[in-house]
Design a protein that fits this description.
342 residues; 5 helices; Thrombin, subunit H; single chain
Length: 342
């Protein structure tokens, strides 16, 4: 997974950006002239160093066509701010990319390129998290018991499961029913979180009963846990920072691990997904709704303005909901705060 994801920023200048708007890149004041990339940097970190609106990075990224894979950025590279025709541009100096190894030089591979956002914080959500319908979960095979009728199963154990198995699929994820997501405005059922419990391989089937070997667990597998076919989900190469297309507004439905308060690098669920045009890489601002207070002079009730509280980036989409990573939190963020175009 990491290998697929490193170098995601390669498309930043390759792809014509369809979301161009009247918004212009806004440099920090003061703004640094250079930044030396270090291990652990991400594209978001670097763009935030130069820009007050980091999602506008593609607007000022200037490609050096003389460099092989000019869109990749590596530790040791120097990002330099220059001006072309009076407009700010960011370029990369790559003197640190080639290691001298006697008797030959070896160039760093693309796997060493920096990531768009801290992928370690969301790796489980990229590879295993599922949001499913009630019907999908109810129709999935389920765990009957472990060998010798054990009720709790761990990695290395075998288990029995009941349901309809497709012979061409051998690897299944083990999931437990999690939180339901209800749209706070319409009341629509948007989906269920299927909590990742482990992975099991189908060995044999007899009638509706399958014998499986557990190869991975995050916690003990129990009777009633559901089995969903393992997804082979590659991350699209179009994963890059961008504002949503059109006017977008949604709400934070939930936070990872059932928390209610949100901070930097927390994963949240929002009530907007593929049907609303959300794509991986969309950046959204997070707002807290203003409260209502009593004016002590006039005794009237006054609505306070909404306040911007942070920024998130969507990294995985489903039909009706999306998962986002909170990249900046200036104030306390919580469930029911809303998101909109940055």
């Amino acid at each position: 997974m990491k290998k697929q994801l490193s170098g995601l920023l390669a498309v930043l200048a390759l792809i014509a950006t369809p979301w161009l708007s009247a918004e212009e890149p806004q440099l920090h004041d003061p703004v640094p002239a250079t930044h030396t990339v270090v291990k652990g940097d991400t594209l978001w970190d670097i763009s935030s160093t130069f820009l007050r609106n980091p999602w506008m990075w593609p607007e000022i990224w200037h490609v050096n066509t003389q460099i092989e894979n000019p869109h990749l950025i590596y530790p040791g590279d120097v990002i330099r701010l220059i001006y072309l025709d009076g407009k700010p541009r960011l370029t990369v100096e790559t003197s640190g990319r080639v290691y001298k190894l006697s008797p030959q030089a070896r160039e760093i591979t693309g796997d060493a390129a920096i990531d768009t956002i801290p992928l370690d914080d969301i790796s489980a959500f990229l590879s295993r998290s599922r949001i499913v319908t009630e019907e999908e979960l109810a129709a999935a095979p389920y765990v009957l018991s472990g060998m010798d009728e054990h009720l709790i199963v761990g990695a290395g154990d075998r288990l029995y499961a009941r349901g309809t198995f497709q012979s061409e699929f051998r690897v299944y994820g083990v999931y437990r029913r999690g939180e339901p997501f209800i749209d706070p405005v319409t009341g629509e059922m948007l989906g269920l979180m299927a909590e990742d419990i482990g992975t099991a391989t189908l060995l044999t089937t007899q009638d509706e009963v399958g014998t499986m070997k557990v190869t991975r667990t995050t916690e003990e597998i129990r009777a009633g846990d559901r089995l969903l076919r393992q997804e082979e989900r590659a991350i699209a190469s179009t994963f890059y920072p961008s504002p949503p297309v059109g006017d977008m507004q949604g709400e934070i439905l939930a936070v990872e691990k059932g928390l209610h308060q949100v901070g930097n690098m927390d994963v949240v669920v929002i009530n907007r997904g593929e049907r609303e045009g959300v794509v991986a890489g969309n950046v959204m601002a997070i707002y807290k709704r203003g409260g209502v207070i009593r004016d002590r002079i006039t005794d009237e009730r006054v609505q306070l303005p909404d306040e911007r509280a942070g920024v998130l980036m969507v990294f995985r989409t489903f039909e009706k909901v999306s998962l986002g990573l909170v990249l900046e939190a200036y104030r306390g963020i919580s469930v029911a705060d809303y998101v909109r175009n940055p």
